[in-house]
Amino acid sequence: MAVLTIARLHPTELSPPPPRKPPNKLAAAGFSGDAGGCTGRILAADFEDDTGGVACSGPSPTQLSQPRTSTLVQSPPPRRAAVAPGDGMVGVDGTQFVVDCGRTIFFSGFNAYWLMMMAADPALRGAVVTAFQQASAHGLNLARTWAFSDGGDQPLQSSPGVYNETMFQGLDFVIAEARRHGIYLLLCLTNNFDNFGGKRQYVRWARDAGHNLTADDDFFTSTVVKSYFKNHVKTVLTRVNTLTGVAYKDDPTIFAWELMNEPRCYADPTGGMVQAWVEEMAPYAKSVDGRHLVTPGLEGFYGDGEHESKELNPWGIYYGTNYVATHQAAGVDFATIHLYPDVWLWGSTADEQATFFRNWTQSHIDATAAYLGMPLLVTEYGKFLWKEVGANKTQRNYFLDLVLDAIYASASSGGPLVGGAFWQLLLDDDIVAGMNNLRDGYEIILAEDSRAASIIGEHSEQLAALNGQDAEALCRRASSHRKTRLGSSLSCGGGDTLELLLRMLLTCFVSLFRSISSFIVHKFILL
User: Fold this and answer.
1) What is the pTM of this model?
2) Does the annotation count 380 as an active-site position?
3) How deeply is 118 buried, as exposed, middle or buried, from its count of CB atoms within 10 A (0-12, 13-18, 19+)?
4) Cα–Cα distance, 140 to 424 (Å, whole number)
5) What catalytic reaction does the record list (predicted)?
């Protein structure tokens, strides 16, 4: 049995949280479960970045979980032209992802940030193979993972421009295995937080070189640091896979590049610094690789004054990002959000979390359709299961049902929300000794939870049944759906085929069964 010895593997705190305080992933989101008058309240500060302050700010979970009424009146923006060639590369056509010159594709995915680090050790590569085998067996077709490890004990990039070939060959293996199992990859290029280096390591490198930088957020403005990051982008995108002989920029296995995991900038709460950085980096990535899609990697927080910012994320205005404006930057092809309502509304009830989830998700669907006209993915979602929190797998699976039903409802009606990726996929410790050390309270081990595996597998089947539709026909259905919501009669424009109708009929039965099951679980088990 291979033994896992990888250091700094997880972007969150691995040890259980102290009593009454959420783990580091909660702190990274800007929340605290401390007593001292702040239990269950939202904080403006982010403790991981040590911005200081413990005073409560913003409304209570109950206030945030009130049903919302959409205020959008703007018509959808012009449809974006399809950019998918007939070579397997994924492109966009309006609010849909397309392949092979216009056939739609939807994503049922997972996060596994550890793939490259695991694959760098030949003795541990079997775990990567098993992960892809299990994912493929459950219909998953997208994996989000790290294409960075900046400095530290197991670096991909040990210093600016200096790369660890062993680690790079691990990433080569990940891409080759994903290709073999029919799974697309969303590759993230650095981290907002200091796990695996991230922006703090880039700033430290610049300081070590004699540059006068004072804060981690100088990452977004320093000419020197930006040159370091651009070099990393170019190095990764132009890498030629030692196993396949295909350059990363030419490999259709790679679905898209994510510039940063959860970018935030406390130095500029207006979002201007992150905005300018994305406006520079997205076109740069496109100049190196004009065939793949690019996304900034946002969590979905609205900036101050942006669409429904006060109603949905009053704390988010301190994070220095603007969901709408940043996704409108040149070179950005699709939007992303993350979903952690139980930690964003720490101390709230299951009903409050469910209502907030529906409001948050629908708001972003509406904003994406009205202001962006591009596809939307939930690139992280999960529910925390540490014993101190009191959540169990039944509650987690109820949350999975909520998220996946929302994705399917949008995807099947031509809406912009067309896929997601749960955080995170792990394997049983019997496969790789030490894998239990990577449990962070969010892990889903398919072999351990048959219900979660069933929910995920059924959702994958539903989305797979939608794959291959003509994007233009789906757009007509989306337009018809919008008219229906406004009280007009339903009209599909005569473009749907008999095959599409049969697919929809079959998936409706599955969706109905899951909805009834979720209702029963929620009413008679959770309560």
Assistant:
1) 0.80
2) yes
3) buried
4) 13
5) Random hydrolysis of (1->4)-beta-D-mannosidic linkages in mannans, galactomannans and glucomannans
- Cα 229 from chain centroid? 21
Collect all residues with Cβ–Cβ distance below 8 Å to 180 and sequence separation of at least 6: 132
Q: Which residues, in sequence order, are CB contacts of 523 under 8 Å at separation 6+?
A: none
**One digit per residue, pLDDT tens: the chain, 527 residues?**
344 444 434 333 333 332 222 334 433 333 233 322 222 222 222 323 333 332 333 445 455 555 554 444 344 565 555 555 567 899 999 999 999 878 999 999 999 999 999 999 999 999 999 999 999 999 999 999 999 999 999 999 999 999 999 999 999 999 999 999 999 999 999 999 999 999 999 999 999 999 999 999 999 999 999 999 999 999 999 999 999 999 999 999 999 999 999 999 999 999 999 999 999 999 999 999 999 999 999 999 999 888 777 778 878 889 999 999 999 999 999 999 999 998 898 888 889 999 999 999 999 999 999 999 999 999 999 999 875 556 789 999 999 999 999 999 999 999 999 999 999 999 998 878 778 889 999 999 999 999 999 999 999 999 999 998 765 655 555 555 444 333 322 223 333 434 434 444 444 444 444 445 444 434 443 44
d(CA 74, CA 120): 49
Burial zone of 81 (CB within 10 Å; 0-12 exposed, 13-18 middle, 19+ buried): exposed
> Measured in Å, how far apart are the chain's first and last C-alpha atoms?
42
Longest dimension (CA), the chain: 67
Q: Note if 472 is an active site residue.
A: no
- 13, 308, 311, 380: the catalytic one is 380
- 21 and 33 in contact (C-beta within 8 Å)? yes
Out of 13, 48, 177, 262, which one is annotated catalytic?
262
